[in-house]
Structures are given as structure tokens and as C-alpha cells.
Amino acid sequence: MLNKIDRNKIKVAEEAVRYIKNGMTVGLGSGSTIDWMLKKLGESVNEGLDIKGIPTSYKTEKLAREYGIPLTDSSNVIEIDLAIDGADEIDEQLNLLKGGGGSLVREKIVDSVAKELIIIADESKLVPALGDFLLPVEVVQFGWELTAHHISQLNCVPYLRKKDNNEIFITDNDNYILDCSFEKIPQPTRLHEKLKLMTGVVETGLFVGMVDRVIIGSDNGIRTHVNEF
Ligand SMILES: O=C[C@H](O)[C@H](O)[C@H](O)COP(=O)(O)O
To answer: Active site at which residues (predicted)?
Structure first.
């Protein structure tokens, strides 16, 4: 039996697939909302839609293969027509906080070069300002404690991400994730820039000024927000 949130995720997944046209190279994001999108996209591919997907995580790659979606990788591609991805928080300017599943680096590489980026989410992801969700920051394993100490000087507590069995979570790029409590992030660009300047930081989960369209699912249906830039 599907819960309300899953039903809303399915609605936005179906709507997003309508934007995928024959011949497109499509960035495939990561996360539970995207898992539904992959299912729908697989159905369209089986009905004849001719596309190539670029997965942003091993999990997405595995699921896409199971659904019969043809894949390529970044070494074969110079242009991505469209990327579809999820988010952990979306603010009023359509800036995002991402990385709850630990896929932020590959997502940002793909999402940032796509000609169009569509984000799909249920309405619980809409927030007035980013930061209630801990900000994921991917760091190299070597010296992570030093990097964490450096990050904590920005007035946050960085927690090393662990799995349910208490082992350290390792990303698809063999790095660690520090989940950082900032409470509120009023200036995401400034914070992102400060973090990126720190040696040891690979990438942050702040996706600023990248989104073209957000499709939100709620019990009343779906609504689309278009970024006017
Ligand atoms: O690393 C994970 C990604 O950024 C996901 O897109 C994000 O966490 C949203 O995932 P979900 O659709 O499961 O809420």
C-alpha cells in the first residue's frame, strides 16, 4: 500500500517524463523520487522512446538497467539536453539543498551542464530558507577530522555520516560526507563559496541558481514553478 508521499512522488515522476523527447541525452538524478521517475521512463522506453540516460549514482545506474533504460556515461557525451533530479529542500528562489542520499557530486556535475534542469519533489521539500536539513558536504577521507574542524569554524556542527550498521558511509567517489548543522542558510552562494575554498572539501549540497523548473506534488495535484532568472 502506497503512502501519501509516495503517491505524490509518482505524480511528479509521471509529469517529468513528459518533458523527455526522442533523441535526448538525459541526466538521471538520484533518490527515491527519481526511482519512481526511472520506473515511468522505463515504461516509455519500452513503448519506443529513444533516449540515452546518464546516471548520477551507482544505485540509479542499477535501477535504470533493470528498467531497460539505455545508458551512456560522461566520457561519451559533451551535451546533456535535460536533467531530472530530486531535492531535500527547495527555497523560494528555487535554490536547492541536496545530497541526503550522498550523490551530490555526480548530481552536480550532470545537473550543472544540462541545458535544462527539472527538479521533482513532494511539497514537504518546500522551505522558506535552506538549512533545516543538515547540509551534506563531501570531503576526501584523508584528514577528514581537520576538514571537519575547519568547517565547524563556520558556526556549525559537522557530523560524519554513518550507515545504519554504524560503518562510515562512503560515496560513489570513495569520499566521506559531513552532514553540517547550520540551522538557517540565508546566503547559500556565500556559504557554498566559503566551503569550496577549504582544502579537503570536494563539493557541497548547495545547488544555487541552477534550476529551470520545479514540479511539486501534493494531495491537490501537481504544480510547476518556472525559474525566470
Ligand atoms: O543524494 C541524494 C539526492 O540529492 C536526492 O536527490 C535527494 O536526497 C532527494 O531524495 P528523495 O527523492 O529520496 O527525497
So the answer is: 107 (proton acceptor)
